[in-house]
Amino acid sequence: MDIIKIDALAIGYHPQQVLLANINQKITGGELICLMGLNGSGKSTLLRTLASLIPPLAGEIALCNQPLGQYSVAERSKLISIVTTERPTLDYLSVEEVVAMGRTPYTNFWGSLGPEDLLSIKQVMSLLSIENLKNRPFSCLSDGMQQLVLIARALVQQGKVVILDEPTTFLDIPNRRLLLKVLQQVAQEQSRAVLFSSHDWELVRKLDPIIWLVDPQAGLLSGKIGDQQIMLAVEKLLFNDH
């Protein structure tokens, strides 16, 4: 079953300023998708539209065979988790408390965490090697470590779709490799769809994900690394002198 189905989608912040149009794609569980393109091409806008943070200008997005707009905020929070490029203000919270916020859609009126919640938090923090930071104040961490904590919060949310905008920003090379390995593991072992944007072609190509490439002329291209159309488009768009 398709987790997300996109039909004739147009995106942007104003009807007179369409960034991308006629987008037709499907996302199924277990897929790891890397969204690539030049700065300002509409990558973040597409991710935000798929997460229902901004409305589409035209077309339809179906989530689990139901129009995205028909879900309540509470329902969507159990299906989609997202980490944007904005850094939230989370003063006075420890790392573990920030990660635990990802379990909010599943807790009771009092926000109490049960054994399953605590286990999920522990497992995800271990995957990202941040369990040793659990008692540290989130606000005192480096930008890179804050990024990993926010991604951990998204992963413990256990949505069918995980959307990450430039998740490797601020990370050093070892943590970039670790993160992409974890994202691949989450997609494959938990049958979740993981969609992330990146400019790090050399690191991404080692994962062999599905590539979504924003091409100014052709629109949104999709294919695997090694597909001639994708490889030629990536080389022309991202590596040729402009």
Textual characterization of the structure:
Helices cover 33% and strands 25% of the residues. The chain contains eight helices and ten strands. The chain has helices at residues 43-50, 73-77, 95-100, 115-127, 143-156, 173-190, 201-205, 228-239; strands at 2-12, 18-28, 32-36, 58-63, 66-67, 80-83, 161-164, 193-197, 210-215, 219-224. A six-stranded mixed sheet has the order 6-7-8-3-9-10, with helices on both faces. It has a four-stranded antiparallel sheet with strand order 2-1-4-5, covered by helices on one side. A hairpin with a 2-residue loop joins β4 (58-63) and β5. α4 packs across α5 (143-156). It starts with a strand and ends with a helix.
Query: What value does the average pLDDT take?
Result: 92
Give the domain tally: 1
Described by strand count, sense and barrel closure, the largest sheet is: 6 strands, mixed
Structural class comes to: alpha/beta
Helix amount: 25-40%
Tell me which CATH architecture applies here. Answer: 3-Layer(aba) Sandwich
CATH superfamily: P-loop containing nucleotide triphosphate hydrolases
The beta-strand count equals 10
